[in-house]
Amino acid sequence: MKVAVFSTKPYDRKFLEQANESLEPKSRHSLTFLECQLDGKTIALAHDHDAVCAFVNDQLDGEMITRFSKLGGRAIAMRCAGYNNVDLAAAAENNISVVRVPAYSPYAVAEHTLGMILALNRQIHRAYNRVREGNFALDGLLGFDLHGKTVAVIGTGKIGVLVAERLLAFGCHVVAYDPFPNDHVRELGIEYEPLDQAIAEADIVTLHCPLTADNFHLIDAEHIARMKWGVMIINTSRGGLIDTQAAIQALKIHHIGSLALDVYEQESALFFENMSEEGIEDDIFARLLTFPNVLITGHQAFFTQEALTNIAETTIANLTELERNGTCNNEILPLSL
Ligand code: NAI
User: Fold this and answer.
1) What is this structure's pTM?
2) pLDDT per residue over 234-250, tens digit each?
3) Is there a catalytic annotation at residue 238?
């Protein structure tokens, strides 16, 4: 297939080329690497291509998809698990298949989540700066033992389960919320509770569910009001799960004790780019950066060697399967909407 790969970084290119070159020469795809994000305008660059390959912050809305269809496009290959940025109904209407990489390294995201909890609790990000400046004072760095604390894991799929297992190893009391509970979690001795109950009991709330039309701003002012005073909130899932303005209000009055974000609802204008010369125009994000008890990473939880290898290999395999069979195991069907 001729594939236009959008939002390409040097690391995407390296891993995708390696995966493509591992195929027999006659089975290889023709990959055009483009640095720009995919949207209703940049789709013009994909004329003469069968497929586009996109990532988490590309905008695959109705406009983009209709234009792609008019250009003769027939497939969208997401090189990620989430597809909240794809208008699946528009893709179905235009006969465009959408495939994704359902799992590439749940370990990567789970380990980053634990890293954020530990760093935020023990203020490692602040300690690093202090020590480099010769400041060895401990004021403001006081943490708490994770042992014995209650953690609410929201979403117990591939990543949530791994996070829960790791928290149990720290001696935490883990409770869970998921509209589709799974037996493995119960076998670990973890109880499922209604969302309101789980977040009200928790010292730490960690989000591991997809962003859907139903759970936009799942953590809003009302839900934050139900949480314990001083709660730690971790989001490595999707930015839209948290109402950032409500979080800021709660941080100002110390209701939220600390917040770690690997994702942010307006991240597409910021993340994966070097903005250090331009400054940050997003005042809400800039306000978040003023809190010493907020730790932000730029959507890097997935970013391990293993994950990039799996993403590239599965993406190339998805394209091959679509080309050969017209369908693919990793296809997202409109029924799953
Ligand atoms: P998964 O599909 O294995 O599990 C998701 C779980 O969430 C399922 O058990 C599902 O029943 C549950 N769920 C659905 N709606 C829910 C709701 N409203 N409340 C609570 N639970 C709900 O997905 P996986 O692989 O565990 O990934 C979870 C999320 O992590 C992804 O949707 C994605 O948004 C995010 N992610 C973030 C990455 C990063 O680099 N920061 C990388 C990969 C995934």
Assistant:
1) 0.93
2) 999 999 999 999 999 99
3) yes
